[in-house]
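Ticket 4471: requesting a sanity check on a complex prediction with magnesium ion. Repro inputs:
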Amino acid sequence: MGRTVELVNVWKIYKTGSVETVALRGVDLVVDEGEFISIMGPSGSGKSTLLNIVGLLDRPSSGIVRLAGRDVSSMSSTEMAFYRNKFIGFVFQRFNLVNRLSVRENIELPLIARGMPKSERYKLVVEALKMVGGEESWLYKKPNQLSGGQQQRVAIARAIVTSPVLLLADEPTGNLDRSSARTVIETFVKLNRNGLTIMLVTHDPEVANCSEKIYLLRDGRIWNTVEPEKDRCILETVGG
Ligand SMILES: Nc1ncnc2c1ncn2[C@@H]1O[C@H](COP(=O)(O)OP(=O)(O)OP(=O)(O)O)[C@@H](O)[C@H]1O
Ligand SMILES: [Mg+2]
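Returned structure tokens:
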């Protein structure tokens, strides 16, 4: 079993003018291939910073980041973008869909970025949409013609359409009602059973309890690891 993610003594210091904010203070973390872990912690504890660094959206100030065994610290921005497209899917709290594009065009975006011809894209888009429980009737709608829960499913479809090895989700249920949150987590569990490695940031214990391990972050440090209480996972507590 390989290590999908490995962080060794990762620090992140933001400098704004003369003000320095230490967002991560020496984080060590290993996520094995096929694991589904969650990260919890108070606002400002560094959760998004950590996820953005793993997701190659940002760089650490120091420390080592390895993705699928590859040290990413010396990559150029172009290489980071390439690697991100190839290996990582990202889901955000605010869905981050492009409202002037149709659902189909939104899901196609990462495929266009890798230069895939149109004729090959459609099949993958439909497969990804089916995987998240979406309907083909959504394809030519605009995102804002869908409910929040449906939009998040489209965002997950966009994240997985490239068959990434790692799915990163920053508060994916933060803007959703309980029933939609349940559907999103149901999808994550299914994707994980199919072999996808998942790192999920959440404030919601009932969401974290659906993962295999919970890391607690405080002041930029992982200070504890707890076992999820499976009977308090949203799949158990909220009716489907
Ligand atoms: N671009 C930035 N420039 C300066 N400081 C930043 C930047 N991004 C984050 N920070 C600071 O780094 C610290 C960690 O922020 P981060 O967004 O990672 O927290 P978080 O745990 O995701 O919080 P939340 O639960 O509110 O989303 C905070 O003190 C924040 O103010
Ligand atoms: Mg955050």
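Notes from triage: The chain is about 35% helix and 30% strand. Leaving this open until the requester confirms.
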